[in-house]
Amino acid sequence: MNPATDMPRFLRSARVRLRAALLLAAAGLALSGCALTRGDPTITYDLGPAVSASSGNGNGNGNPAPAPLPKLRVAQTDGPNWLEGNALFYRLQYAQAQRLQAYATQRWVMSPTRLFDERLREAVAARGTLGWSGDGSVPALKVDLLEFDQVFDSATTSAGVVRLRATVYRHAMLGQQTFEVRRPAPSADGAGGVKALAEASDAVIAALLDWIGTLQLK
Predict the structure, then answer these.
(1) Which residues neighbour 203 within 8 Å (Cβ) at sequence distance 6 or greater?
(2) 128-166 burial, b if ≥16 CB within 10 A, otherwise e?
(3) Cβ distance 107 to 86 under 8 Å?
(4) Is residue 174 helix, strand or coil?
C-alpha cells in the first residue's frame, strides 16, 4: 500500500494546504524579523523631571517661591481626539499650516493629555494641597488641552506650543481663561520639540496657577 496514493483525496488536499500555510507563516515571520532589525528604533519621551515650585515661573532663574494656593481639586484633563494617542505631532506653519503630522519613529510614553495631567497635579500639590476628586467642598480646576505640538516657522526654526482653556468652579463657575505659551526648540527635530513642549508645559502651568491665586476661592 502506498500512503501517498491510497490516502483519500480530501486528506491529501488538506495536507497540502496545511504545508503551504506553514511555509507562508514561516516566510512572514522571517520578513517581520528583518523589518524589526533593519528599521529605525522607536524613541519614547516624557516631559522630564518636574520643575521645583521654588523656581517661580518655571524658568529656573531663582525667583522667590510663588504664594501657596488654597486646597484645590483637579478634574481629569481632556483634549481633542488626536491627542489621545502617543504620537508626537508637528506642523509646518510656513508650508502646510493646515496639516498636522506625526514623527514616524518618535513617540510620547503615553498620551499628551495624560502627561500634562500628571504634570499639572504635581504642580498643584507643590503649591498647596491636592484635594480628593469627590470633595465638593473645595474648588475644582478643569483643563481642556487645545494644542500641544511643535510648530515650524521655517525649515530650521520651531517652537513647542501649548494652549489650553482652564475653568475653576465650585457649584458655579468661579473663573475661566485661555492660556498659550510658546517656547523655542533647540533643534529642528523631535527631540528639540519635546524639550520645547516640556518647557512650555511648565510655563503655562505656572501662569495658570498664578491666575488661580488671584481668584476668590475661599
Answers:
(1) 57, 58, 59, 181, 183
(2) bebbeeeeeeebbbbbbbbbbbbbbeeeeebbbbbbbeb
(3) yes
(4) strand
- 44 by DSSP, 3-state: which? strand
DSSP letter, residue 126: H
Cut 0.70: pTM above it: yes
Q: Provide the pLDDT for residue 211.
A: 96
Note the pLDDT of residue 94. Answer: 96
For residue 100, the number of C-alpha atoms closer than 13 Å in the C-beta half-sphere is 11
Q: Which of 23, 30, 218 is nearest to 137 (CA)?
A: 218
Nearest CA to 72 among 181, 186, 208, 187?
A: 208
Least Cα distance to 117 among 76, 86, 153, 152 occurs for: 76
Report yes or no: 194 and 50 within 8 Å, Cβ to Cβ: no
Q: Using one digit for the tens of pLDDT, what is the confidence trace for 156-197? A: 999 999 999 999 999 899 999 999 999 999 999 999 999 999
Intervals of the chain under pLDDT 50: 1-7, 10-11, 22-37, 54-60
